[in-house]
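Review form for a predicted model. The reviewer records the input and the model, then writes brief findings.
Reviewer: anonymous (R2)
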Amino acid sequence: MTTSESVVTGTAPRLAPPSVAPVVQQLEEHVTAFRRDVHRHPELSYEEYRTTDRIVETLAEYGLNPVRLEGTGAYVDLGEGPVVLGLRADIDALPVEEETGLPYVSVNDGVAHACGHDMHTAVMLGTALTLGRILRGAAPTAELRAVGERARGRVRVIFQPAEERLPGGSLAVIRQGVLEGVPRVLAAHCDPHFDVGTIGTRIGAITSAADTIRITLTGRGGHTSRPHLTEDMVFALSQIAVNVPAVLSRRIDVRSAVSVVWGQIAAGSAPNAIDNTGYLAGTMRCLDAGVWEEAGALLDEVVTQVASPYGVQVQLEHIRGVPPVDNAEAETALIEDAARRELGAHAIALTPQSMGGEDFAWMTQKVPGAMLRLGTRTPGGPTYDLHRGDYAPDERAIGVGMRVFAAAALDVLAKPAR
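Model under review:
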């Protein structure tokens, strides 16, 4: 609606909310130091005791009232009234040796924040501190103080353990009731393919379902000169490896992007001997939650059918992982609107779908939600891939994430509770 239309209808034009940048700038140095401390002391899934302590201590230092979860993890509420928005960060690290050579390199051998969860934690902790200042009237500008006075409702910031251990720590968070009464939820994941200052969004599936498949075959071994007297283990394994993905591609709608890829295969120890055991393992991924359920049941059937002609005994271990993260339209728009105001329209890019799994999906199955991709590449610098020991995100992304999530939260707080 234009200003002239407002005069005719008697309604006031809606003014663009002020940027949260002044508050973020006040906090950014401290939040970055917090991130470096967490990075230096990474902890594996369900072992994030020190990380949880640091989160709780830092929030309490700023006058907030965090709540510890069972074991590890925490959450904190900002504001008063019903919860209107959830923000989620994952806090665990990976069993990876760090190779960055940074001054704050991991001191825990074989453990590193090689997926950027320390960045996620810092972003959401910084967002909580930003909202805390604004909602308590401690913002540095009159405009932001006025925004805080008008805000209605609570924002719940969740620090979730064990994203890296399937089926994911978000299920434990949900079981503890942390998502009860939360009408919508947002999250971020670092993306080293986007420059810092840029975020990636998309509506619909942004990540894939991810299952683990382990197949053990047993049968009579023997000499390679007499395969007819054996259950030829290597041949049977090879047929499963090749034909199971092929059969699934003809039994399931290809638009769901079901993908079975093997990462391990083993049988035998000599070129002229057929072993009596064999092993095959891999993953099954899918971009459609409904088809994911269908493919899971079909996989067991297809493996058995393909192996049957070779007389081998099949032991199939199909470990269900996580569904796809399905970004809802309204929540994606909420992120984009906030990013457009804080960073500019040029800062929003369409992100490709990822075939990686992410347990935030369990939350988006409960309530509408969206995940953004947070650019962490230094412009003109190298692209460090995730889950590698040399992953070194540009820390300026922390302030970018704080601005987007704090602005999105204030948007929701400015509206009546649904």
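Findings: The CA atoms of residues 87 and 132 lie 14 Å apart.
Further findings: Confidence is low (pLDDT under 50) at residues 1-13.
Recommendation: see findings above.
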